[in-house]
Amino acid sequence: MWDNIKEFASEFFVTGDPLIYGADVAIVLTMIAIVTALTYFKKWTWLWKEWLTTVDHKRIGIMYVIAALIMLFRGGVDALLMRTQLAMPELEFLNAEHYNAIFTTHGVIMILFMAMPLMFGLFNLVVPLQIGARDVAYPFLNSLSFWLFFFGAMLFNLSFVIGGSPDAGWLAYPPLSGTQFSPGVGQDFYIWGIQISGIGSLMTGINFIVTILKMRAPGMKLMKMPMFSWSVLSSCLTIILAFPILTVTLFLLFIDRYLGAHFFTLDGGGNPMMYINLIWMWGHPEVYIVVLPAFGIFSEVVATFSKKRLFGYKSMVFALMSISVASFFTWAHHFFTMGSGANVNAFFAVTTMIIAIPTGVKVFNWLFTMYRGRLSFPTPMLWMLGFIPCFVVGGMTGVLLSVAPADFQFHNSYFLIAHFHQVLIGGVAFGYFAGLYYWWPKVFGFKLNEKIGKWAFWFWNIGFYVCFMPQYVLGLMGMTRRVSSYGWDRGWYELNLTSTIGGFLMGIGFLFQVWQILHSIKFMEKDTTGDPWDGRTLEWTIPSPAPAYNFATLPTVQEKDDFWEEKQRIAAGGAPRPKPPLEPIHMPRNSGIPIIMSFFFFVAGFGFVWDWLWMIIPGLAGVAVCMLVHSFNYNTDYYIPVEEIKRTEAAAGRAV
Amino acid sequence: MAKSGNHIVSAPSHGGGHAHEGHHDLEGMRLMGFWIFLITDCILFGTLFATYVVLSGNTAGGPTGAELFEMPGVIAETFILLTSSFTSGLAVLAMNRGDRKGLISWLAVTVVLGAAFITLEVTEFVTLVHEGAKISTSAHWSGFYTLVGTHGLHVSLGLVWMIAIMIQLGRHGINSVTRRKVNVISLYWHFLDVVWIFVFTIVYLLEVM
């Protein structure tokens, strides 16, 4: 009996690595601390009622952002561990297996559990406010999306201490990810973690498309919509077309592993290249999914801090939408070396180069917006300015990679690593940081400390170039991606050490950001105006933080940047537009079903990982029961009476 | 906003009667969301079809579809599913007449036909497995079971869903919420019908021809 338990435990828990034992202890201590604190301060009911069951898009957005920042921390630690291993030749800090696991989890976490939720967080925090809506189209589904993401991410991260991390790369190419070469459960954690959170992403895509198309304030024609909302629309259209492919691809890989099917195996007529095609049919649009909203953020930021209307509004819309279409026709550039022939490669090379055109149009639009603007440079604008040169260089190296014959040289070298980090950090991360700094006062009601923010910006920005510029050179010198060690004779030592130093500079930048947030909470500089940046769009017309119902009376819109035009009109002596009388506001009720149902998904996923039927069946049954309970519940909404609206508005200092 | 207990809610009659400012047509929006969901489901089936087409014929020396398919059963399945699509349409027509009894009855007929379809499909799968074509036999059969099985799973979920809606119709009658739900399930049912026509053509007809 005892031996059985011991054997099970040694398989179930990850053992033998002091780093992981340390993490185990830290995780247990943190959990005890959280539970104790919640119990001591009697906060369990508050947590359940106000947060875990909320369907309010603003709170869901905040939860997304918190989860994403925690994931950024984990993904960042992974990155620094890798850079430490590569700092010197022949280091034995991480062994090869551990290194494989770390580059896999770094990639998955940064894209799927950091960038995606941070993006969804910004969608939730901003889009309804920006288009003058009181919530998203499907608040219940919105909460379900969040909890599916959350439990998917938990399932994936659990592999760190239970069962072992996946180690077949962030896209898990077969046959390496098949049972023959990855017999452990790590790969199953990968499949189910991504699968569960992917369902959530798909539903968010549908939710925001309908929100944007159907819930805009009266008078806000599509071509008067703020650019961030446009970018969300283009991103969500890409999501709904791309994510089903991911769902199917992972499902097929799962069937290969679980039922011994032959989709991607080397025997039985399977074809691993089919997987690589399918995963990139999702994977390439995915990088545009995360970068398009960043373009939207920059468009808002640059207009606000130039005090000018965005240059080339129509061309910007056209550029966003054409990228979301064109992104589906470039996937094969990830494997020019597959050998599909010159004609196929030529097609995908040309489509890839074509995408550079709308992207270039956008860069010129931002530059011309600043031209002759009344510029100011608070932190959101700094990130915008850091982004432009970084993204231009990253984009140009992308065009170099798209040249198919040359790609045979660059393929899977550090040149590629440097390229995609440059567009993902310089584009996506800088963009979301700009967005977080820009909308922070609206979300939390206080401003972030500018001085510490500037330190963070410079550490990130300088650290970025120190880290990744050497990697371009290393790639051309022949260093391939995913090597865990290299010899002294290679001549790669100085550049790798430089790169590692740059990585740690970015790490310090992150610490500055944490300090900035804590410092700003302590010395709170409240935003009492609701419009701290002299903004242009509807979200700045309401108090910070926004009340539960967002808008006491729904705004009507006449022009682009309506709030800005209205402010100009009033400054010129015009009378403010009359507001309609208050009416009771229709609101969705909170629901515990999303979190419970997602938990059952987690249970079923965990069962599938270990092939425990006794866990799979109750998990799936729980999901089904939750769906039925929700379907039979007709009591899903309520009205906020006029009196309560008056009290809330008065407390925020607004006359009604 | 959690404290909501004492607000009076006018039960499920939105969309039609109320015209509160900012009170969007909820049921219309939900229907639109379902159309978009169907787009995603289209892509899902499209990916499965693509995989099937790429891998079909890769039987690794094992049995082929032409050797094992028994077309009479498949043709019966096809006609049953097409008929069920027709009866689900009749259910919607009954709903539009305000005929709750007719609506529930036609939905019941649709459920029975759908269940018959699933029974035939399961029987077919069992026979195929006995004849030596398992999901692990070859890439060809992996693609077959996954594509046809995913469609079958969709139909089965639809059956549970339809029964749930019938119970709700019994409880609440025809109102804006149940009306939307019937419209949605009927859309879903027609969609599965269309997908089946592609399954029938690409998986079965092209194989035995």
Short descriptors:
heterodimer, A: 656 residues, two-stranded antiparallel sheet, 20 helices, 68% helix, B: 209 residues, mainly alpha
What does this protein structure show overall?
The complex is a heterodimer of chains A (656) and B (209). Chain A contains 20 helices and 4 strands. Chain A has 656 residues and is mainly α. A two-stranded antiparallel sheet of chain A has the order 1-2. In chain A, helix 10 runs antiparallel to helix 11. Chain A starts with a helix and ends in a 5-residue tail after the last helix. Chain B has 209 residues and is mainly alpha-helical. Chain B is built from 6 helices and no strands. In chain B, helix 1 packs antiparallel against helix 5 and helix 4 packs antiparallel against helix 5.
Q: Provide the helix percentage of chain B.
A: over 70%
Radius of gyration of chain B: 21 Å
Largest sheet of chain A: 2 strands, antiparallel
Strand content of chain B: under 5%
Helix/sheet category of chain B: mainly alpha
Q: Quick one: overall form of chain B? A: elongated
Number of helices of chain A: 20
State the helix count of chain B. 6
Largest β-sheet summary of chain B: none
Overall mean pLDDT score of chain B? 89
Name the assembly state.
Answer: heterodimer
Describe, in short, the structure shown.
By secondary structure, chain A is mostly helical. In chain A, 68% of the residues lie in helices and 2% in strands.
Per-chain topology:
The complex is a heterodimer of chains A (656) and B (209).
Chain A: H1 2-12, H2 18-40, H3 44-52, H4 57-86, H5 96-130, H6 139-158, H7 186-214, H8 227-259, H9 272-306, H10 313-326, H11 342-370, H12 379-402, H13 404-410, H14 414-444, E1 446-447, H15 450-476, H16 493-522, E2 525-526, H17 562-571, E3 585-588, H18 593-610, H19 613-632, E4 637-640, H20 642-651
Antiparallel strand pairs in A: 1-2, 3-4
Helix pairs in contact in A: 4-5, 4-6, 4-16, 5-6, 5-7, 5-9, 5-14, 6-7, 6-18, 7-8, 7-18, 8-9, 8-10, 9-11, 9-14, 10-11, 11-12, 12-14, 12-15, 14-15, 15-16, 18-19
Chain B: H1 26-55, H2 65-68, H3 71-96, H4 100-130, H5 139-172, H6 176-208
Helix pairs in contact in B: 1-5, 1-6, 3-4, 3-6, 4-5, 5-6
